[in-house]
Amino acid sequence: MSAPRANWKGHIKFGEVSCPVALYTAVSSSDRISFNILNRKTGNRVRREFVDSETGDPVEHDDQVKGYETGSGKYVVLEPDEIAAAIPESDKTLDIDAFISCAEIDDIYFDKPYYLAPQKLGEEAFALLRDGMKEAGVAAIASTVLFRRLRTVLIRPHGDGLIGTTLNFDYEVRSTDKAFEDVTEVKIDKEMLELASHIIGTKKGSYDPTKFDDRYEEALAELVKAKLEGKKIPKRKAPTASKPSDLLQALRESAGMGGKSGSTDKPKAKTKAPAKPKSANTNKTPRKTAKSAPSSSTSTRRKAG
After folding, report:
1. What are the residue boundaries of the structural domains of the chain, listed by start?
2. How far apart are CA 7 and CA 3, in angstroms?
3. pLDDT tens digits, 8-42
């Protein structure tokens, strides 16, 4: 098996220390099921082409040029060499600006992850940076030009190497104001909150990526197989949202309490009182046993929806 091809090669610099590194794609969608676009009438593949919006004539690749719209139907034409000249100059260096806490950056700013590995003659300096960050429990913020754009990169220790995650700029991350402006303040009933807390507690677990499958990809594969075999495709019912009037009942059922109300510290399971000898004190009440909560390992084995 051949070694992976680096997407970028350069240096990481911290202080006066510099080491050569290579950057590799960490996430790939190449294994996903892909489709071709066909002509429904002929069954032939459809070929994409650019056409002039006014004349309808095909436009060859050499005649295509980028343009920025300044008004309705008016554009500023930008030639490839003009765009290339506007890209900030880069000396192929990931220059570390600061070391920060790993939890300091909101993951909404995360864009794409890449693996960073040392090149020849850079192993010692690379290991020094990696192990130093591990020891201090920090990540690094650096910047450079990647793929014709100036990028901010978050660098973190990962196994024997480093992970470099490109970050979205502040102007690219939309404000929550518009998304949450219609969210109204709701006062939650104490019993409902206790039930929700109990359910959350019984579902606690840990994240193991190997336990989660891409069910969409599996469903597509099953669909293709069924079509090839001429089988009928069953239709699935859409889930219905819980009505506010049914929410408390749904929470009680989820907590294993049926329709009962009361404390949710530990939902009780009905137990049959043991038979007592005639001489026993009948004033004593048999103790109920707590219903066993599902184990956290069970919840982590459930596949993602």
Report:
1. 8-27+87-172
2. 13
3. 999 999 988 999 999 999 998 888 888 999 999 99
Return the structure tokens found at 182: 């219609």
Task: Provide the 8-state DSSP code for 246.
Answer: G
Query: Which residues in the chain belong to E strands, given as ranges?
Result: 8-14, 17-25, 66-71, 74-78, 93-101, 110-118, 138-146, 149-158, 161-167, 268-269, 289-290
- The string over 232-252, giving b where at least 16 C-beta atoms fall within 10 Å of a residue's C-beta and e elsewhere, is eeeeeeeeeeeeeeeebeebb
Q: Cβ neighbours of residue 207 under 8 Å, at least 6 residues apart?
A: 300
As a whole number of Å, the CA-based R_g of the chain is 30
Are the C-beta atoms of residues 116 and 6 closer than 8 Å to each other? no
138-193 pLDDT tens trace: 999 999 988 888 899 999 999 999 999 999 999 999 998 889 999 998 888 888 88
* Contacting residues for 154 by C-beta, under 8 A, at least 6 apart: 105, 110, 139, 140, 141, 164, 165, 167
Q: Burial code of 3-18, b = ≥16 C-beta within 10 A, e = fewer?
A: eeebebebbbbbeeeb
Residue environment code for 71-89, b if the CB has 16+ CB neighbours within 10 A, otherwise e: eeeeeeeeeeeeeeeeeee
Nearest Cα residue to 25 out of 94, 88, 111, 119: 111
Fold (CATH) for 8-27+87-172: Ku70; Chain: A; Domain 2 (2.40.290)
What is the length of the chain? Answer: 305
Report strand pairing: 110-118 vs 93-101: unpaired
236 in Cβ contact with 223 (< 8 Å) = no
